[in-house]
Amino acid sequence: MPRKIFLSFLGAIPYFPTKYYLEADRRDLSNEIYFVQEHLIRQHPGITEAITFTTDDARKNNYENRIERPRDQAPIYHEGQGLEGILKQLKAEGILNKYRSEHIPNGYSEAEIWEVFQVVYEQLNEGDMVVFDVTFGFRSLPMLVIVLLNYARTLKNIQVEAIYYGNYEAGKDEKTHKTMPHVEAPILRLDAFVHLQDWTHAAQSFMIGNVIPLSEITKEKHPDFSHEINAFAKAILTCRGLGLAEDVKIDELKTSVRQMSEQSDIDVVLQPLLNKVSAKISPFDSGQLSNGFAAVDWCIQHNMTQQGITFLQETLISYMVEKFLGQDSLINIYERELAGSALQLFPSKNCMSLDPIKNKFFAQKTDDEKRNTILVYEEMREFVKNKTPLRDLYKELVGKDGFRNDINHCGYRRPYLRPEELNEALRNLFEKIKSLNL
Question: Is the pLDDT of residue 298 over 80?
Fold first, then answer.
C-alpha cells in the first residue's frame, strides 16, 4: 500500500508562537504553536511517516531543542521542546505513525543544493502520496521542491497532495496594523505550481503534435473536449483517414474550443492553449476527405513523416475514387486499386491483370460493367494527364524508388534518404501537389 508521507524543512533560527490557519475564514485556526508542521499534520490524517530535513544547526536548535535568542543575551535552549518532541506527542495521540530526521547541507552552493535534491529524492518511494511543507526552508528550497516533486512524479509515480508555506510575515504585519494580541498567519498552498508543470508539459507536447497530455489534463473539467481532441489526435497518429473524414467530430471539437474560451472561469493556463488548438485544427472540417490533406500538413509540421506519407498516398487515391466513382466506393479495394493505377497512368489493361485483387473483382462484373469500368478508368487517366506532373509526383511518392518504400522498408533499399531528409522530401512533394489545385 502506498505511503502518505509528510516532508518538511527546518531552519536554525528562533521561531515565535503563532496561530496558523489554512481556511480563509480561519475556522481551523490553531492554538499558538512554534512549528507549523504540527498544525499541518493534524489537518492531514493518515500520514504514515513524517520526515524532517535538518542541517546540523537546525537539528540542534529546533529539532532536538527549541532555541530562543533574548535581546542582548546568549541563546537559550529549551531542551526537548523542539519539533521532535511535538512529533513524539502526535505519535502518542495516534495521529502520526513514524517520524525521523534526515541530514542535509546548508544549500549555500550549487553543489550543496544538488545534494539536498538527492537526499530528498531518496526518501521517496514508488507511488508515495506526498504532503510537503516548505515554511522553514532556505530561500532557494521552495523552487527546488517544485522541480524535485515534478521529477519524482515522472520517475517514481508519486502523487502530490499539497505543498504548504506558512506566511508568518503576513500574519505579523496584520498583527501590527490591527493591534492583535497574537500573530495569525495564513498557510498558502503552492501545489498549483506543480500542476503548472503538467500544463507546461501539455503545451509542449501539443506544439509537437502530441495532444494526449492535453486530453488527460482536461478530462475531469472538460470531458467532451478531452474526448474529442483525443479522438482527433489518435486518428492522425494511427493513420485513420476514413475515420478522420467520417467519425471524428471536428465541428463539435471546434464548438467545444469556442465554448470553453467563452467561459469566465476557464483555467487561466488553458486559454493560451485553446488559442493554439483553435488555430491548428482550423484547416479540418467534419465529413471532408480534404482532412487527409490537412493531416499531411499536420504530420509535416510535427515530424510524423511516416504517417504523412501514408495520408498523402491514400488521400490522393480517395480523391480520385470520390471524384469518378462517388463516396460509396471509398472503401472498395478494387476501385482504390484502379485509382492508384490511374495515378501512375498504367494502360487500361490494368483493369484486369494477373494481380489477384484486380482480377477477382473484374471477373465478377458483367460485360456492361466491365466496359463502364474501362471508360471510368480512361477518364481517370485523362484527368491525371491533364494535371501534369501529377503522375511523376505520385511515382516519386509510391514508385519502386519512392520514399514510401524507403520509409516502410526501414531504409533497406538503396538509395535511401537520411532521417533528416525524409520530412523535407515529404514537405517539398506536398507543396508541388498542392500547387496542382486538385
Answer: yes
**pLDDT score, position 367:** 83
Domain of residue 151: give its range: 4-190
Percentage of the chain surpassing pLDDT 90?
53
pLDDT attached to residue 163: 94
163 and 15 belong to one structural domain = yes
106-127 pLDDT, tens digit per residue, is: 888 889 999 999 999 999 999 9
On whether both 212 and 270 belong to a single domain, the answer is yes
pTM for the structure as a whole: 0.76
Same domain, 209 and 333: no
Mean pLDDT of 276-281: 90
Distance set, CA 295 to CA 235, 299, 309 (Å): 9, 6, 10
